[in-house]
Amino acid sequence: MILQAASLLQAGKLVAIPTETVYGLGADALNTNAIQKIYAAKNRPMTNPLIIHLPNDEAMSDWAIDIPKHAWTLAKKYWPGPLTLILPKHPRVPLSATGNQNSVGLRVPNHPMALALLKVFGGGIAAPSANRYGRISPTTAAHVEEELGSQVDLILDGGPCQVGIESTIISMLGEEPIVLRQGSLSAVEIADTLGLPSISYRTSSATQVPGQSESHYAPSKSLYLVEQIRFLDAVQQLEKRGDKFSVLSFGVKPKAFLSQHLWISASNDPASYAHHLYAYLRLLDHSPGDFILVEAPPTDIAWAAVIDRLRRASCQASPLF
Ligand code: TXA
Ligand code: MG
């Protein structure tokens, strides 16, 4: 399977690959035709740059130039792992892979199948999440099939992704590192590793980072995020007025809740919650309810990446009451 995947990549085809975060839609990062196919399959704007996946940290200097010391420190500590570094691009990286920018996103994924493929293939694999643009990222091979089906030449099934949400993205382009996208690896931990008091977040510029555009990771149904303190009241009120909806909560289903509607009781542990999040959102999206009600997690740093994804999944919704 790995050999077949490597030769498909060499032939300019698309291969969906499992990683520890989410599944990626992979192509040869040096083949501009193959890169065009990624954008076409996802229906993704050409200005949104792709992440290039590498077999190990030494390969970083084949894809980036002027690599600062902090970048090496992070790569050595966290790769393979859920961290993407944005660096000045090497001249050989095609502009079509970087959305016409002079920077490039690099990461070494921590999944045995992805690493085996990268080793056999020998080059870099450009791979955004294997979903249609703006939709929920896939965390199983079946999700990739559901999102992209026949547009992928091969789907490597590496089981459910362990982390479940996309990598933390850090820009290393300026004087100080900046968090462009939150992930399971927190800004606090990265600041600690670099001996910095803190790391700031970039909050705007949706064109450069689609993961930062307000609506993203979104189910087709409206999703409402309700604070814990108001949650059960909201459920009761909505049921009273006859609404049909599905729920993602931390608590167990109340006896009165209509049995035909889906009620998912999620874990209180942020890592476990993140691991299941996108599969839950897909289930809720496919359930018979008209909309989705989600009990907001605690506003604690450990939940920051999960809250970020839930907010982006919810922002299209019109008012609940
Ligand atoms: O966990 C992940 O990062 C997954 C797996 C497959 O590795 N990939 C992923 O890719 O989430 P994608 O394309 O869905 O999100 C990549 C993000 C985008 O928001 C993109 O804008 C940002 O990385 N990015 C890539 N290169 C960049 C660059 N040169 N400057 C700024 N942002 C960049
Ligand atoms: Mg994505």
Give a short synopsis of this structure:
It contains ten helices and 14 strands. It has two domains: 2-201, DHBP synthase (Alpha-Beta Complex); 223-314, Rossmann fold.
Structure notes:
The longest helix is centred in the C-terminal third of the chain and has 17 residues, at 270-286. The chain has 321 residues and is α/β, with parallel strands linked by helices. Strands 7-1-2-6-3-5-4-8-9-10 form a ten-stranded mixed β-sheet, with helices on both faces. A four-stranded parallel β-sheet has the order 11-14-12-13. The protein contains ten helices and 14 strands. It has two domains: 2-201, Alpha-Beta Complex (DHBP synthase); 223-314, Rossmann fold. Bound molecules: threonylcarbamoyladenylate (TXA) and magnesium ion. The site of threonylcarbamoyladenylate has 28 residues, from strand 4 and strand 5. Threonylcarbamoyladenylate is lined by residues 19, 21-22, 24, 48-51, 84, 86, 98, 101, 103-105, 107, 109, 127-129, 166-167, 169, 180, 208-211.
List keywords for this structure.
single chain, binds threonylcarbamoyladenylate, DHBP synthase, ten-stranded mixed β-sheet, 17% strand, binds magnesium ion, alpha/beta, 321 residues, four-stranded parallel β-sheet
Associated small molecules: threonylcarbamoyladenylate, magnesium ion
List the strand order in the largest sheet. Answer: 7-1-2-6-3-5-4-8-9-10
Biggest β-sheet strands, sense, barrel = 10 strands, mixed
H/E series: HEEHEHHEEHEHEEEHEEHEEHEH
**Global shape:** globular
CATH-level-2 architecture of the largest domain: Alpha-Beta Complex
What's the helix count? 10
- What is the count of β-strands? 14
Structural class of the helices, strands and pairings? alpha/beta
State the distance separating the first and last CA atoms: 52 Å
Rg of Cα set:
20 Å
Low-pLDDT runs: none
CATH fold group of the largest domain: DHBP synthase
Helix content: 25-40%
The CATH superfamily of the largest domain bears the name DHBP synthase
Main CATH class of the largest domain? Alpha Beta
